[in-house]
Give the backbone structure.
Amino acid sequence: MKKMPVPPSNTLPCSSGSTCTDKNDLCIIISPIGEIDQDICGLVGKKIQSVFGYHTMTLPILSDISFAYDENRKQYHSTPILQKLADNAPANCFKIIGITGLDLFIPILTHVYGEAQLGGKACMISTYRLHDSQETEIYSKINERIVKEVIHELGHTFNLRHCDSSSCIMHYCRAIQDVDMKSDQLCRYCAIMLADELK
Ligand SMILES: [Zn+2]
Ligand SMILES: [Zn+2]
């Protein structure tokens, strides 16, 4: 039998990104799956609040995603994970973004940086391919990519589609260079679409 990589079970309650204090306050939940750096949750939380205007709360919901593991591909299928995140989210959750270090795929692609329920509640990203083994990388670079992909996937849950503008955060990226090239901002067009959604 092939051995399955086991995701770390001791999840870090990274409270540094928590700004949601009222339990009845609708918020966007940042949900680390496995060990995710506390600093990342904090950075992501700040950016989410500035773009979408919602408080954030860091809350690990899933520690084990072996149900989504594909033996042949040695990767995790993101779609069922999204469903589980949405199903297990607490009542005050408006949107939820899962963050994992494990490699994700959807059947038609070799890998994905993330996936989202378009106009729905849940989305997730993987940090796995946001590291480039060729570079001696500075953490800030990786963190920048993570923040961009988080905002991108959350954008989809607010009904934003992919944008042709290569500098827009909603631009679809095939390679890490594309991620580095795009800004961490919505273009004017996407910003208007989001403002409409937030009304
Ligand atoms: Zn996308
Ligand atoms: Zn755009």
Observations:
- The two ends are 53 Å apart (CA to CA).
- The pocket of zinc ion (ligand 1) is lined by residues 152, 156, 162, 172 (CB under 6 Å).
- The CA atoms of residues 48 and 86 lie 18 Å apart.
- The chain has one domain: 15-198.
